[in-house]
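FYI - complex with tryptophan, inputs then prediction.
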Amino acid sequence: MKTILTGDRPTGKLHLGHFVGSLRERVKLQNSGEYDKIFIMIADAQALTDHADNPATVRENILNVALDYLSVGLDPAKSTIFIQSQVPALFELTAYYLNLVTVSRLERNPTVKNEIAQKNFETSIPAGFLCYPVSQAADITAFDANIVPVGEDQAPMLEQTREIVRKMNELYGEVLVEPNIFLSSNETCRRLPGIDGKAKMSKTLGNCIYLSDDAKTVAAKVKEMYTDPLHIKVSDPGHIEGNVVFTYLDAFCEDKKTVAEMKEHYQRGGLGDVKVKKFLLEVLEEVLTPIRQRRTDYEKNPAAVMEILKAGTAAANEKAYEVLRRVKRAMKINYFE
Ligand code: TRP
């Protein structure tokens, strides 16, 4: 069996960084027909680990993220889209896995460490937040997933999941499937910079192009995109390193030959930023137009989207419960069976 599981926290709308880093790959994997099962999770319980005081944000963004999924081409006939908090087996599994992980190991998890610094938690780290890698291990193993397509920042989560799996299997017999991370093969796509040239596109940094942005907004954002500050006159030789416009062309333009020629011309001098940006905007619009069309259709009928999530959640519950029973049997805590 080849099974995929992945997901996102519903804390905001998804952006181009999510798209090239993971969403686009998921759609390709989905449409390759090579996978027996695909589970896509809206990780609301994980989002609550650092939004306990603001559940409304999480609640609102469930529909936003679902719309983002459906508009990029995730197809409910092929992929099971579901809501994490509505699958109780995940929380039972988490409880058992927590006994196999030390607090110091969690504190060393690089992603968690980064986030703690970013959020200024300092000494007031919510216990649920510190432990979310364990709940993520439950998310992955509850579906017997062997392939987890995610952005590069999630690599430490996969590492920690694999450790938990090995420990479980060592203690209770071969009960869990060890998953592998699946990263985008395009280096540029693994970490898309923001339109301001900062290393990462992120909601908090306010440097995103959202999948739900309209054409006018995208045009304005491309216009203000960071290029080469030393490239003043069109005739000046320009730099392409750190020049976001070229980075985005690498991530989005299929026509690699044209991009290579433009880079060469820009570096030689004589190619203006306005022209390159105009080309990038065309490339982006080609990607975003069909996404917007699908969104418009689904947006008209939010009840139908909720039905998709409901049906997906029922299917997810069935699978996760089956795995939970297998785990409890392996742990010999199936007293009444
Ligand atoms: N941690 C992921 C994020 O921040 C979301 C997530 C939760 C996830 N559970 C998962 C991703 C399981 C992959 C597999 O976006």
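The first helix runs from residue 16 to 32. The pocket of tryptophan is lined by residues 5-9, 41, 43, 46, 136, 139-140, 148, 150, 154, 157 (CB under 6 Å).
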